[in-house]
Amino acid sequence: INYLQPLSLAQITTLFGLNEFKLKKGYKSLFNTTVFGHIYNLRMQKAMHLLSQKKMTIGEIADLVGYSSIGSFSSEFKKKFGFPPSKA
Question: How far apart (Å, rounded) are the C-alpha atoms in residues 26 and 82?
Fold first, then answer.
């Protein structure tokens, strides 16, 4: 699974051969987060890494990690890290 691509729970359950209930319950008990909570964290960590390299614009990074709007990406980034992507 490529966490940077749009994903649905149906796709993930098919790939892992589990039903939705087992996937959600098992993931939560093993990792103490939801499937999409984990994907969100991976995407934000990737964004932080890319921002630190200063090779891409904020818009390019937002698009790469799955946000169609720079505003929503910036808002989520600030919520996660406590500062806007422009300060990373």
Answer: 30
